[in-house]
Give the backbone structure.
Amino acid sequence: PQYLAELTNNVPTTRNVQYYTEIVFKHATKRKLIQAADSIANDGYNDELELDTILNDAERRILELSSSRESDGFKDIRDVLGDVYENAELLDQNSGQTPGIPTGYRDLDQMTAGFNRNDLIILAARPSV
């Protein structure tokens, strides 16, 4: 009984998912950095490649890794407002037609403007609905 009680205290829970996600992301980024460094080193030993090509490729690889670390996080409303306005204009121009993939449910299509290919859609309702 005591072992089981201790076991429940040491088992990872969803409450710590952010912490574990950061660990996985950190190690994945380190692996990608090692792969990039290995590739850059191999390019350095290749006498057929121009120095500028090697430097540009190395810089590109490191910048790609660096930019992947940046979080989407919060965005300034001024940066997002243009996209929202364009989407509203598109909806207005397509009056009566769903610009995305229609669901077959008119009210849902009006609320979502249809689904897009890259969207993760989760629909939920009470069991009695």
Remarks:
- Helices lie at 2-10, 17-45, 51-68, 77-93, 106-112.
